[in-house]
Every structure is written in structure tokens, then in C-alpha cells.
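Problem: given the chain below (54 residues), write out its structure.
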Amino acid sequence: MINTKRRNTLQSAETTGTSVPPASFRIMLSALIIIVAITILSSFTSMPYGRYVS
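Solution.
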């Protein structure tokens, strides 16, 4: 009973703690970084280009 409970808790902790969150976290972090980078690049490039073009 104790061994099976320990195994179940360990398995659940491994599946929920190590496999699922890192993947979603990496996807979320990469998406946020890409969005932030695009916004920063667009703001930096649109400011001087807009001034030069206009």
C-alpha cells in the first residue's frame, strides 16, 4: 500500500511537474519573447523609418 502510494504520487508528480509544465512554459515563454521582440523591433524600426520617409 505504502509503496504503491509512493509510486503513484511520484508518477503523478513526474507527469504533472516535469513533462507537462515545461513544454507549455517553453511555448508560452517563446511566444511572449517573440511578441516582445517583434513589438520592440517594430517600434525601433518604425520610429526612424517613419521620420525619414515622411
